[in-house]
Amino acid sequence: MRPHQRSTPNFNGNPGGTNAERKQRTRADSTGGQLPPAKRRNERGSPGMASLQSVCMPEEQNHDDMNWPLFGGPVAAGSISQPDIHPKLMEFLGERADIWKRPKKLKSLLEDIEEDHFDRWRSVGCQLCFVNNGVQAPDHQITRRTSAGSDKAKMILQWLDGLKLERFAGRYGRCSLCSETGKTGETCAELSAAAYFDTVDTEEYKAAWRTEIDSAKRPDGLCENKKVVRETIAALCGYDGQILGRGMARLVSEKYDIDLAVKEQATQWFEQQVEYRQNWIPQILLVFDLLVASFDLLHDRGTKRPMDSEIVNAPESEADEADDYTRDEVKKWKAIADGWKGKCSFCAGRDLSEEQIKHTLRNCNRGGKLQLAKGLGEAIYKEGFRALGGCEDCAMPRELCQAWSKQGNRWKKVPGTQCQYGTQAYDTAIGFYYSDIKYKIRLAEAMADDEDKYDAGDEEDVAAWLGQEFITETGVQSSEIMRQLAEWTQMSKKR
């Protein structure tokens, strides 16, 4: 991500200001008024079916009394579903671990971790359901399920949560897990915040970004990948008779002379740091890579992502024709709007599958509906920060809205006719905005050129900026929200 020097955002979603101040900033009359400068405030397939009998159900169980060894005894010659995998698995684990000792090859491997491993395992929901049944389960987590390997997975996760791992590596803000994994900041909120902290040009903005970074009190900081790594390790070490957990234990014993059956040795080894260039990488990232790569080997998956065939998109025939930004933007916007009918951008932004986003934001029971009541939704629907270019009711260009007709050089509302898109554009923007911080960050980059008027951390300013009018090269009146929806839709396709 290329950071911008820009005004200081506050991603806590508190627009601030009195009601009177807000009303003074409400959009200008759509018949020709100009929007005044906003007030600034500081304020992702399918692995083999390991166990068809595995059923996820709620469970109340206390795993405080953990039984060691967590990673099983010596690896047997076979497993429940892969009787011939043991020699091949051990050979693969050894070769993979050797890569971590070769900096040149490790660089490429680390990029794969970010581009495939983080993205894929963050999107599956309950990792244990995924490894057991090959299906995404976004509505629950390992800690509340019973399925093959769940008891052991939950005990491993509880132990992993208690490890003492450094938040930063090398310097302040540098995420210890993600800082060496390729495209800095695109999948880690910690690195994104640190990038702004390093590049802002005033002490005031630097102090504000330090406050944002320091506000995360949990050990993981702002990074969401650390939780994903721990849950994935627990699931992979717990499923299928612990074949991967036992395989890793044997590898560590033979290669590092560490006995993972002994809690103290396991804790010390997992908390170690692997030297890399002038920095270091946490050992737990090595464990994550070994297990994910081995899982892919067992299921002949290579590095193919489970959602490659389930990408959220506008109708392909239209969207592909319009992918080039130099072509008619209006045609592209129509394809995108048609593609989002009956789909939820909040779930899409969280990388759920195509099947799992087939509902609107207003009918989303995974938290999407609740986002409408937050600051951006309030600014749009209650404070009146609507699109100033095109139809203010649906935010689409009037050329695409059936509620408008052009008579000569003037547009007029068609009596008794409603916009066929309703509030879809606004809802889609709100869903994306709150789904993942990477969408907020991309928006902040787009707003950087207008930092003297709009604060990307102020949700009223965001709504006002999205409503800004502009004229396309073909003379069509539109608003920034259409371009931003196109950008966010493209981001959601790259999973």
How does this structure look, described?
By secondary structure, this protein is mainly alpha-helical. It contains 19 helices and six strands. The chain has a two-stranded antiparallel sheet with strand order 1-2. Strands 3-4 form a two-stranded antiparallel ribbon. β1 and β2 form a beta hairpin. The longest helix has 21 residues.
Summarize the structure.
The chain is mainly alpha-helical.
Mean pLDDT: 77
Total domains, how many? 2
SSE-based structural type: mainly alpha
Query: From N to C, what is the helix and strand string?
Result: HHHHHHHHHHEEHHHHHEEHHHEEH
- Measure the end-to-end span: 16 Å
The largest sheet, given as strand count, sense and whether it forms a barrel, is: 2 strands, antiparallel
Strand content: under 5%
Strand order of the largest sheet: 1-2
Helix coverage percent: 40-55%
The gross shape turns out to be elongated
Low-confidence stretches: 1-8, 11-65, 74-85, 302-327
Number of helices: 19
The count of DSSP E runs of length 2 or more, i.e. the number of strands, is 6
Overall radius of gyration = 25 Å
Lay out the secondary structure:
Layout: H1 19-24, H2 86-99, H3 103-123, H4 127-133, H5 150-161, H6 189-199, H7 203-214, H8 225-238, H9 243-256, H10 263-270, E1 273-276, E2 279-282, H11 283-298, H12 316-321, H13 329-339, H14 345-349, H15 375-381, E3 404-407, E4 410-413, H16 424-435, H17 437-447, H18 459-466, E5 469-471, E6 477-479, H19 480-493
Antiparallel strand pairs: 1-2, 3-4, 5-6
